[in-house]
Design a protein that fits this description.
Layout lengths: L1 H26 L29 E12 L6 H4 L11 H10 L5 E2 L10 E2 L1 H7 L2 E8 L7 E8 L6 E13 L4 E17 L2 E6 L2 E3 H8 L3 E2 L9 E2 H6 L6 E5 L14 H19 L5
Antiparallel strand pairs: 1-6, 1-12, 2-3, 2-9, 4-5, 6-7, 7-8, 7-9, 10-11
């Protein structure tokens, strides 16, 4: 009887020591990996917009732009592929905020208006593709059979971003200014050997600034000067091209111009806005 008790006591002590070691490994803090301890930027607040009076807006135009993450200057939106401490890609930042209820996604509409809100689960569910294919068995009699291939949502396929913004001339400040109104992540897929773009949802940029102000962006020039997504948009540190301007037909450039003509039309729109401001002054 004593031997059984001693054996039970020995096993109990061994388990307790092993549990203590595991707990010690879990609660141990990671070593310092950097020049200083980074406590994050959770207290950052976005810079408030300057006030606008309707009487001061003497001219305005709405344009739509597209940012391609594959361009070298825009790669800060796409990376990192694997989330790191206080550093996420743009789409992961947005999806996490949608999942936590910090942002509201709106369904894609023909007019690009923010009308119908959709949930995070709806966003992910819509990107689950099902493709019907006819395949052949590898063994005799090599008969054909129907199959369905399911593809789950892949955040790394989000490679573009559409921006809806309003340009206006404020006569009180005598300055041409711009305000981003909404953002739309765009996924690039391959179907039948061709590249297909699929917009996911719209989010309101003014409502998203609190989230973007607490999200790091990689700074190519100085890692000590931490950059946020809100500063990235505020300072317009991205390269883009115009794919639509406000017009009576409500059509995109691609609907009436293609190839080099579409690029020239986009440049014409940008030059026209620039020349409007220049022509207001006399030298």
């Amino acid at each position: 009887m004593k031997r059984l008790f001693l054996a039970f006591l020995t096993v109990t002590l061994m388990l307790s020591f092993s549990i203590t070691d595991v707990n010690a490994q879990i609660i141990d803090e990671a070593p310092l990996d950097g020049l200083y301890e980074d406590e994050g930027i959770l207290q950052y607040k976005p810079m408030p917009y300057p006030s606008i009076r309707k009487a001061d807006v003497m001219w305005s135009k709405r344009v739509w732009r597209e940012v391609d993450f594959r361009q070298k200057f825009n790669q800060k939106f796409y990376f990192p592929i694997e989330t790191q401490a206080n550093w996420k890609s743009f789409i992961v930042t947005v999806l996490d905020a949608l999942k936590e209820g910090q942002l509201t996604a709106y369904d894609i509409s023909g007019t690009d208006e923010l009308l119908v809100p959709i949930t995070y689960n709806e966003v992910i569910g819509r990107q689950t593709d099902s493709i019907y294919q006819i395949m052949q068995r590898p063994n005799p009699p090599y008969e054909e059979f129907d199959t369905v291939i399911y593809t789950d949502f892949d955040a790394t396929r989000v490679m573009r971003l559409r921006i809806k913004e309003d340009w206006y001339f404020d006569k009180q400040r005598s300055q041409m200014m711009v305000r981003i109104q909404a953002l739309c992540p765009v996924m690039i897929k391959e179907r039948n050997g061709q590249e297909v773009t699929e917009p996911l949802f719209w989010i309101s940029y003014p409502e998203s600034r609190d989230v973007f102000a607490t999200s790091y962006v990689f700074n190519d020039f100085n890692s000590a000067a931490r950059l946020t997504y809100d500063e990235l948009f505020w300072k317009r540190l991205f390269d883009s091209y115009v794919y639509k301007e406000q017009n009576v037909f409500d059509r995109r450039i691609s609907q009436y111009a293609t190839g080099i003509d579409a690029l020239l039309e986009a440049e014409r729109i940008k030059t026209e806005m620039f020349m409007f401001e220049e022509n207001l002054w006399q030298y």
